[in-house]
Design brief:
By secondary structure, the chain is of the alpha+beta class. It has a single domain, classed as Sufe protein. Chain: A. Helices cover 39% and strands 24% of the residues. It has a four-stranded antiparallel beta sheet. It is globular and about 45 Å long. The model has no long low-confidence stretch (mean pLDDT 96).
């Protein structure tokens, strides 16, 4: 089975679709389709993730490769990738995630 998430980053005007598939051993095959050059570099670095990569902060390819690819610290792609992996691994309910809809960061004018 494959889990898929879409990230629309309106501030930087980029759209990214992340697909992850469980390889059967807990590792995830990752495919990222994007129009962002930095995320394209990131995609080439994270084609496969081990369980510790999507469940740990330290020594995680998700975060190490984000830095190596030059993603900004505000980029939503690494977090979206972790969420897709969690859904695919059964660590988060796919049905609930789809039912509840988008996760959102909203800036509020005061």
């Amino acid at each position: 089975m494959t889990s898929k998430v879409e990230v629309e980053s309106r501030i930087c005007s980029h759209r990214t679709v992340i697909e992850v598939t469980d390889n059967g051993d807990g590792s995830m095959a990752v495919h990222i389709d994007t129009d962002c050059p930095s995320v394209q570099t990131y995609a080439s670095l994270v084609s496969k993730l081990d369980p510790t990569d999507y469940s740990e902060w330290s020594d995680s390819a998700v975060w190490e490769m984000a830095e190596k690819a030059g993603l900004t610290t505000t980029c939503l792609i690494p977090v979206a990738l972790v969420n897709a992996c969690w859904v695919e691994a059964g660590m988060m309910s796919k049905r609930l995630a789809v039912k509840e809809g988008p996760i959102c960061i909203r800036f509020i004018e005061q």
